[in-house]
Design goal:
Elements lengths: L16 E2 H5 L5 E9 L16 H13 L6 E2 L8 E11 L5 H9 L6 E9 L11 E9 L13 E2 L6 H8 L4 E4 L14 E12 L15 E2 L15 H5 L19 E8 L6 H13 L7 H8 L14 E7 L12 H4 L4 E2 L11
Parallel strand pairs: 1-13, 4-12, 5-10, 6-7
Antiparallel strand pairs: 2-4, 2-5, 3-4, 6-11, 6-12, 8-9, 9-11
Length: 357
């Protein structure tokens, strides 16, 4: 798998109930987790034979605490080496442990490079993968000569000084609804490669604000979730400010400023294809180096040809930052499951999309 993202395809499908919710006995709760993790030591989110995964760590912690063997669903299946500031996951449980006690209890069974930020009980109709309406990824490049050794697992070193003003201008061609098969590995592996990108920005920053997040690592738990269920970070655009996102680099994010050592690409969309973000970054790097013209990204999108795009960027610079969900799913149901859905379920066979970042 790669920078994985099981994304909505943006179609007008009726809301489906998670399969486990439809067959669950009375007393079952749906628990949403918000996690951050260092992806260096893992083969990715998804369970894989004889290889460490974040999913297996979380499922082990749940079983150790509750005695139940439960499958955990996530917003996006990150690849080996890819990190998360705000991964969202959910699982169903009959455990009576109060929500306020779950975060600390589960954390004791998780490894030190996986941090459970918050826990909330949500609607039985909530599915971390398919209820998502927007997702945000960030890619971090260090292009200021020698990269400090303790940063190499958390950014992508680049030997060339990049022209970020060109990269930012080129990124604007991504905005809107397009067929992005040109950035998808192994096309076709989805029902559709059409996605809607709402924001795409490239800027420079001086440093560690990249790892800040709105949750402030406070470890809060509540009885209900939030629409912005993960790290609410974005660039300081008028649109992002209106949604309440804060920017850790709003004072030094001038794309034309070449004095800052980090180049940051940030993108928000209704979903992402297999390797899509990293393929975009590879193409933007070519533009930033001057190997391609600024409007080359427009040509790549129109070509719908993966060979026209740049190389897939390395995984360690990629972060899953934020996932947003509809408000009505962010709180426990007041009615039974039978009253909250249309009787159809989201099983593995009926999933609308199953891509990987």
């Amino acid at each position: 798998m790669t920078e994985a993202d099981d994304a909505s395809d943006g179609s007008d499908r009726p809301a489906l109930m998670p399969f486990e919710a439809l067959r669950s006995p009375p007393g079952t709760r749906n628990i949403m987790l918000t996690l951050a993790y260092d992806g260096t030591a893992y083969s990715g989110w998804q369970v894989q034979p004889a290889r460490p995964s974040v999913q297996s760590c979380v499922e082990y912690a749940i079983e150790k605490l509750t005695g139940e063997r439960r499958r955990v669903y996530c917003a996006g299946r990150t690849d080996a080496g890819v990190h998360a500031l705000g991964q969202v996951a959910n699982f169903f449980t009959l455990s009576p442990i109060p929500v306020k006690n779950l975060r600390a209890a589960l954390q004791t069974a998780l490894p030190e490079d996986v941090t459970l930020i918050s826990v909330a009980e949500v609607s039985m109709g909530f599915h971390a993968t398919f209820s998502a309406i927007r997702k945000r990824y960030r890619y971090v490049i260090h292009d200021a000569g020698i990269c400090p050794p303790f940063l190499k697992r958390y950014c992508a070193p680049c030997r060339f000084r990049l022209q970020t003003d060109r990269m930012h201008e080129a990124a604007q061609y991504l905005l809107g609804r397009h067929d992005f098969r040109c950035f998808e590995k192994e096309f076709p592996n989805k029902e559709t490669s059409v996605r809607h990108i709402m924001e795409a920005t490239v800027c420079r920053t001086s440093g560690w604000g990249l790892w800040d997040s709105s949750h402030q690592w406070s470890g809060t738990s509540s009885g209900s979730g939030r629409k912005n269920a993960s790290a609410d970070i974005g660039l300081a655009t008028a649109e992002s400010a209106a949604r309440g996102f804060s920017s850790p680099w709003s004072s030094d994010g001038n794309p034309a400023d070449t004095t800052q050592p980090f180049v940051v690409f940030e993108v928000m969309a209704d979903g992402f294809l297999y390797n899509m973000v990293r393929a975009i970054v590879g193409t933007l790097i070519d533009i930033g180096r001057g190997k391609r013209p600024v409007d080359y990204l427009k040509y790549v999108i129109e070509s719908m040809d993966r060979s026209a795009a740049g190389m897939t960027a390395v995984p360690q610079g990629l972060y899953m930052v934020q996932v947003e969900y509809p408000d009505h799913l962010m709180r426990p149901d007041t009615k039974g499951v039978a009253d909250s859905g249309d009787g159809e379920s989201m099983s593995d066979e009926t999933r609308p999309d199953g891509g990987d970042q």
